[in-house]
Amino acid sequence: MLPTDNRLRRRADFATAVRRGRRAGRPFLVVHLCSPSAVQGSMSPHAPGESASPARAGFVVSKAVGGAVVRNRVKRRLRHLVRDRLVRLPAGSLVVVRALPGAGEASHQQMARDLDAALQRLLGRGTSPGSGTGDSGGDAEGRPPR
Q: How far apart are CA 91 and CA 144, in angstroms?
């Protein structure tokens, strides 16, 4: 189970993460990560005098993934995977993990691999083996960085 302080619940928080954050897509999921600096301008559930809020995560699993049983299984797997990786995220950041239609048939290991790769890309740790330069001059499709 994901601790209460680490859950995204409000629609505005989901919208902030998706609209202001960076995105990394993988075969089974898409991860949106909004840095703490972009979150500061938005409404925060914590009082101004409190310390930085913890990283919070939310999940989007549509009916395209499968029926209710499949969707709930995918959400449980994603919650478990993200819970173990919260320590990697900067305090105050927002993460939205959106499951793609193939996630219902994916194994736990495949989803873990996709989540790790997406977070690694978003957090800027390391470079892809074929990049050569190590700069963030865009992605594989030639789109400029955000």
A: 27
Domain spans, the chain: 4-38+54-123
- Which structure tokens are listed for 32? 């949106």
User: What pTM does this model have?
Assistant: 0.75
Q: Tens digits of per-residue pLDDT, 22-77? A: 999 999 999 999 888 766 655 455 545 456 789 999 999 999 999 999 999 999 99
Between 3.80.10.10, 3.30.390.30, 3.40.190.10, 3.30.230.10, what CATH number should domain 4-38+54-123 receive? 3.30.230.10
CA-nearest of 13, 30, 34 to 146 is 34
| Nearest Cα to Cα of residue 22 among 121, 134, 125 | 121
Mean pLDDT is lowest, of 24-28, 82-86, 113-117, 142-146, for: 142-146
Structure tokens at 130: 């074929």
**Amino acid (1-letter code) at residue 113:** R
- Can you read off the two tokens belonging to residue 104? 């219902």
Show the CA angle centred on residue 84, arms to residues 44 and 89, nearest 5°.
45
